[in-house]
Structure formats: structure tokens, C-alpha cells
Amino acid sequence: MSTPAPQGEDRIELLLATPDFPPSAAFAAQAEVADAAIYERAAVDPDTWWADQARQRLDWDTPFTEVLDDSDAPFYRWFADGTLNVSYNCLDRHVEAGLGDRVAFHWHGEEGEQRDLTYAELLADVQRLANGLKARGVGKGDVVGIYLPMIPEVVVAMLACARIGAPHNVVFGGFSPTAVRERLEVSAAKALITADGGRRKGKTVPVKQAVDEAVDDLASLQTIVVVRSADAPCPMRAGRDVWYHDLLAGADPHCPAEPMEAEHPLFLLYSSGSTAKPKGIVHTTGGYLTGVATTTATVFDLDPERDVFWCTADVGWITGHSYVVYGPMANGCTSVIYEGAPDYPDKDIWWDIVERYRVSIFYTAPTAIRACMKWGAQYPAKHDLSSLRLLGTVGEPINPKAWLWYHTVIGAERCPIVDTWWQTETGSIMISPLPGLTATKPGSATRPLPGVSAALFDEAGGPIEQGSGVLVLTRPWPSMLRTLYKDPDRFVQTYFSQFGPGVYFVGDGARRDEDGYFWITGRIDDVINVSGHRLSTAEIESALVAHPVVAEAAVIAASDELTGQSIVAYVTLRAGTAAEPALKEALRQHVAERIGKLARPKRIIWADDVPKTRSGKIMRRLLRDIAEGRDPGDATTLRDASVLTKLQQATAQVDQVPAGAPETGNA
Ligand code: WTA
Predict the structure, then answer these.
(1) pLDDT at 658
(2) Within 187-237, where are the H helices?
């Protein structure tokens, strides 16, 4: 008699010893990319390889003759003498090809509502909104803010902006109205598209009303378009504010897509960096669309006739821009948009959606996988997940156990997993398996994609073939950021000043193994990654010190089992302020108001002083050691070494307080 095959935890333990996971013969046989020679071909002449992608995958109004222009490096330009329109490439050409009735999005609302939106329907709404915006004086080059929940109108809003060449600036719905204001102000947004309210786990929260106070005196903001979405109280200011449905109803239905220069800015997206001021990352038209269209097809082995694609990210992050909206729509495929939380109405809602819409490609963040793992395999077990054929992860390193849980419980050991490494700045996926070719290893993003050159450097800029180092990209690529909005000096300084001309500094550390696979270890700068959400220590510190009782604050990231990293704040109170427990809640609330709930510190530790060098610089490495319970070791460079012992004691006391349930990520 044979013993039964091990299951669940035992199976995962067993698989931990498996060195790698090649694609099955059946998967490889049908894969979009099945010939390993593609890497070689792209490496020999990357410019031609990218130019071929740009020509094959996109429709150009004026074909380009120039590929890469590096005459003003690092301000690279791609396909610069070509023109095209992104909304044409995402809508019109599919409708013209007879695919107007194809569902672009199955939208699933958090109360179970369902709406299918076809390519033809979206094209009709996009044209009306584009005309509505034009009638309000928004034209080519004018920035439009978008602050919307995960409702279909967010896609219409983005594509309407693209249609008329108005760069959009989407602000993640989890950011506070104060953060919205800051992002609209620095980008001088002329219009804002928002909603009356948002819904989360059965509750309705007013959005427009909350934003109003923050943006009231913004001189540049001439129009606020409001989607009626949640029946929340919503004051409207005559002259400035207009309902989305009224604007569409009154607009001309025809708005031809205007050809844009390939280098015309498609959008700005603010992202956290090393300082308190977020960076306005600028992406342009032709290169960006080439990058996302190519990677959606190749990395996800997408067949638009067959697949149903679901990327769970919020459109407020780059993952949502590239793999909810632009990549899938450029390929003309059917996707899912889900408005709600992964545990509402119950913890099986994601798997319910996979079953209901026969999702075949599923792309999410490691934090979400770890949360599902904690909730237990009984939730996915309630549903038929046999439609799944490929799984993906993004946003943070994935630990091998979570990878194997995903592989066994969700993928039934049938689906390849693509661990995709990239950034807001890179626009599209850079390091990832190609699922029909690559033998994957749990925890490794494997190799740079064709046309991408990545390397590891030591601190002095010497290349490292094997071992640990600093990740860099050594050649420009079409979907790279072009600059930081109105801050070209910071662009050069942040990304191109570390290792000499042409070398893009990523900000991540990584290791390369004997097979040449990359293992990303995480940020090496002051960026925190909580649940795949990118935040800045400096921005949180600046929010904390803006509170009247705070004299000084040092914020660091500590590793966290569920969220990857968590925020720890060492706070020095002003003399005379009593360190009461209630004050911690007040400070968390204060951070939520300044930035957003996602930036609230998980632990606040009262500190009389924080470790500083003799020149006054906070030594974050020591704080991280203390927060993670390690011995900080050599502290001879400290101004006052006794500070460490006190902090260790204070940290140990805080850790005795049980932590609340961590928020799950939405990316
Ligand atoms: C991290 C998200 C390990 C990394 C698309 C990067 C990852 C930052 C991975 C960018 C991955 C993203 N493995 N780490 N597969 N993907 N990261 O700009 O630290 O929100 O620099 O873009 O997330 O975050 P961003």
C-alpha cells in the first residue's frame, strides 16, 4: 500500500527542498515566448529589439525613424519623431478590428454588484469625458488630478486624459486630502476628477467633501468633476464643480484621438523618495506604452482571445496604471476590477471572483498572499480555481514559504509563478521569469527581461558577478521615467549620479546566485515598503514633527512577518509633555491626516534621545537593530552611547503590548 501524498504544510516543507520549478511541458508548448534565443537576440541589438516591439504591438500615426536618442543623457528619448495616441491604442483600434463587444472589464463592487464594460462602451464614455474636459478648458499639457475609488470611471478618466494629451496625476485613494492637495498643488493641476464618496467594508465615507477643504484655495484648480458613486453628502460649488454624468450627457459624443508626440507626457505619479517631498515621476507616451504592452503579453503569456486577467492593485499605484489599465487594454484583453477589500464580505471573496469570471491570470502582492495564508486554505478550497493558469507577484520580496503556498494552494502546482521586479520609475516589469522558459526559484525574480540590462555593483561601482551588491540598470529602456516633474536636477542626482554616465541607480540591494538569478533583498535608501506600498521615512518624520508635542522623530522600517516591513517611530516629546499612551493614538491619527492611514506607525517608542553621529546625523541602522531585537554592536561613532541602552529598554517594553491586526495591502 502506498502512503498518501503529503498535503498542506507538509507538502510545502517537502517542496522547500526543490531547487527550481521549470514550466510544465504543456505550458511551455503553448507559451507566447518559448524560444530562449529571444534573450540573445535582444542583447545583441536592444534598440532594434525594442523598435520591433514598438512597431508590432502599437499603432502609430506617424511611424518613428529614430529609436533611442541619448544625445542629452540621462534625459533619454525614445521613438521621438513618431506620433501615436494611447487611448486610440487601448480602445479605437480594438473596436475598429471588430472587438467592440469584447468585455474590457468585469467590474465587481464590494456589495456584489456586477458591471461588464465593453471596449465600445468605454470608447463612447471616454470620448464624451474628453470633450467635457475640453469644454472646461482642459487641453494638451494641462495636468488633471484623479482621486477615485476602484470604479470603472477611473479607467474612463485616465483614457480621456490620454486622448487629449492632458497628463493625469492619479492619487491613491488611501492618501489623505492633505496629501491630495500637496500633489495637486505641486503639479498645478487644472482639474480634478473625484467621487462623492468611497465604500469600504460596508461603510461609506465622503470623499469630495473631505477634499474640498484641502483644495479650496488652489488657484490653478478650475474644475472638479464628481462621480456619483456612494451617495455620500456632497456639496457642489457653482462654476467650479460638475457632476460626471451631467458633463457626459452634455458632451459631443465624437472626440477623435489626437496624435501625440511619442515623448509627450502621459502621466505623473508621485512616489516616495529619500526626502519628505514626494517625487513627481514623469512617464511619456510611446516608450511607456511599448514597455507595458510588451511585458503584459510576454511576462503573463497573455492571449486576449483566451485569458481573463486580474491584477489586484489599486490604480493609484504604478502597478494599477501599467497592469490594470494600460498593458491589458493595449493588448485588448478582458480584465477584472474589484472595488473592495480582500476580506469583505468574507475572506473568500477573491476566490469567489476568480471562479465567477474564470480568471486565468492572477497578479497580486506577497503581503496579500501572506494574509490569505494566515486566513487558511479553507477559503480558496470553497471555490473552483481551475481556470487559473498563471500567477504573479509584485511589490516586495516574497518569502519562499508564501511562494510555495501560492504555488500549491492557489496554483494547484499547475501554474507558473512570475515574481516581477520593477518600480514606479521603470514603468514596466524589468526582472521576471518568462513563464514558458524560466525554471523559477521561490523568492527570486530570476533574470532581466529581453532588452533589459541589470547588474550588481559594489559600493565603489565595481561589478559583482555573484554575491550581494547594489542593483543598477546599465542601459536605458523605453518605459523609463523621463524626469521628475519640474525638478530635473533631483532626477539626475537621485538616479544617475552614483555610478557614472548611463547607470541607473535603483535603490534596491540584491544578490546574484550561481545561475545568474537575481534575489532582490529590499531598499537600501530611506524608503519603506509596507504591504508593497511605498512610503518615505522622511515624509512620516516630517508629519510627526509637525505635531505640537513632538520635538524630534526618527522613523525606520522593521521587518514584519505579514506586511514585509512595518513602520517604527522613535519620538522625542517636547519638554513638559507627559508620555501618555493616548498620545500615541493621537500621533497616529495625525499621520493619517497628513499622509494617509497607510503611513501610521505600527509602533511608537518614546525616546529621550535618538542615536546620532557626532555631526548630528541620525543613525538609522542602529535603530533598526534595536527595533528588530538585535545587538546594535559597535557604537563608538555615537555622540552619546548610553542612549542605546535606554532605547533598547523602551523598545522591549513597547513590544510587550500586543500589536493590532495589520492592514492588508491592496497592491
Ligand atoms: C520593491 C512597484 C522584490 C523594490 C512595482 C522596488 C520588489 C520597489 C519587487 C518599487 C519584487 C517591487 N521583489 N522587491 N518582485 N517588486 N519591489 O515604485 O524595493 O511602488 O524598488 O513599484 O518595490 O516600488 P514601487
Answers:
(1) 44
(2) 208-215
**Position 245 confidence tier, pLDDT thresholds 50, 70, 90:** very high
Is the CB–ligand 1 distance for residue 423 below 6 Å?
yes
What whole-number distance in Å separates Cα of residue 610 and Cα of residue 620? 9
CA dihedral 418, 86, 171, 277 (to 10 degrees): 90
Compute the distance between CA of residue 167 and CA of residue 163 in angstroms, rounded to an integer.
Answer: 10
Q: What is the pLDDT of residues 39-97, one digit of tens each?
A: 999 999 999 999 999 999 999 999 999 999 999 999 999 999 999 999 999 999 999 99
- For residue 340 and ligand 1, the question of a CB distance below 6 A is answered with no
Nearest to 254 by CA among 85, 126, 107: 126
Q: Say whether pTM exceeds 0.90.
A: yes
* pLDDT at residue 659, rounded to an integer: 44
Ligand 1 and 271: CB distance under 6 A: yes
- pLDDT for 285 beyond 50: yes
- Strand pairing of 168-170 and 144-147? parallel
Percent pLDDT > 90 in the chain is 87
Residue entry with cell 491584477: 311
Best mutation site among 398, 520, 565 for ligand 1, i.e. most ligand atoms within 8 A of its Cβ?
A: 520
Q: For residue 527, which atom of ligand 1 is closest to its CA?
A: 19
Residue type for 482, please?
A: R
- How does DSSP assign 360-411, residue by residue? -EEEE-HHHHHHHHHH-THHHHTS--TT--EEEEESS---HHHHHHIIIIIT
Testing ligand 1's pocket by substitution, the residue of 508, 517, 537, 565 carrying the most ligand atoms inside 8 A of its CB is: 508
Mean pLDDT within 638-666: 67
Condensed to tens digits (0 to 9), the pLDDT of residues 136-187 reads 999 999 999 999 999 999 999 999 999 999 999 999 999 999 999 999 999 9
Ligand 1 mean position to 422 CA, how many Å?
5
CA dist., res. 108 & res. 122, Å (int): 16
Closest CA to 529 of 342, 292, 365, 401: 365
Q: Is 636 left (phi over 0), alpha (psi -120 to 50) or beta?
A: alpha
Output the CA 423–ligand 1 centroid distance in Å.
5
For every residue of 426-473, DSSP letters joined together read T-S--B---TTT--B-TT--BSBPTT--EEEE-TTS-EESSEEEEEEE
Distance from Cα 365 to the centre of ligand 1, integer Å: 10
Note the pLDDT of residue 653: 82
Q: What is the pLDDT of residues 401-415, one digit of tens each?
A: 999 999 999 999 999
CA distance 249 to 78: 38
Amino acid letter, residue 58: L
Phi, psi of 326 (to 5 degrees): -70, -45
